[in-house]
Amino acid sequence: MIEGEAERLVDAAWPAPHRVRAGEWVYRHAGGVTKRANSVLAVGEPPEGIAAAVDAAERHYASLGTPCVFSMGPGAPEGLDAELARRGYALADPTLIMTASLGTACDGAPEEEVGMAEEPFPAWLRAWWRVDGRYGDAGDAEGAALDTALGTASRILGGVPARYAWRGPREAPYGVGRGVAQGDWYGIYCMAVLPGARRAGHARSVLRALLSDAEQQGAKRAYLVVTEANTAARALYERAGFTESGRYHYRVG
């Protein structure tokens, strides 16, 4: 991937409903639903300088009453990470960017038991949320607050055309995943298996189904992001032919 390409692909596939452009940077906000959609996409050198650009971002998020968070990928300007560390921003969620060529990844036919939908239906959303969708205060949501959080999540995920795979009963899936066709690239997102259903091949089946969909849509390569600490998922992706292509992390103020 070229510098900044991964961040832009991820941003396009995971569009925050509220976005403010500040030069090449983007302030993203989604009511606390996922860190990715509530962070500064900092790609490119700000003309006013790093310190002034961070000051402006901090003012913006302060006006929203939310923490200022930066997504720090390969396209982030030199010196930004050091400036944020100097200001006391905590480093969070070191993450790998992994890529694979289609045709070699997960060779073989996809599992027939994997369903595929064009929209994130409620049971799919709840399965993903239970495993990986929560962030900050939104993670503790219950009742009406949970419905609001899931509604926001649906707006984020449904902001671009995508495919929603699931394994198990549609009304209560125990494994899910999302695929986004982006020209030559196909992004794999939301891979999640409920704790009681793990180590039974569900994630592998969902991944195979999404990669088959990628080939049908004419993509040439697939990418995904996975936290460095998630060794089980990393092993699954490596077995499927994915290799590390880059890294990013967050800085949380």
UniProtKB/TrEMBL annotation:
Keywords: Ribonucleoprotein, Ribosomal protein, Transferase. The keyword Ribonucleoprotein applies. Residues 111-253 form the N-acetyltransferase domain. The keyword Ribosomal protein applies. It comes from the Bacteria. GO terms for cellular component: ribosome. InterPro entries: Acyl_CoA_acyltransferase, GNAT_dom, NAT_camello-type, Rv0428c-like_C. GO terms for molecular function: N-acetyltransferase activity. It holds the Pfam family Rv0428c_C. This is Ribosomal protein S18 acetylase RimI-like enzyme. It comes from Thermocatellispora tengchongensis.
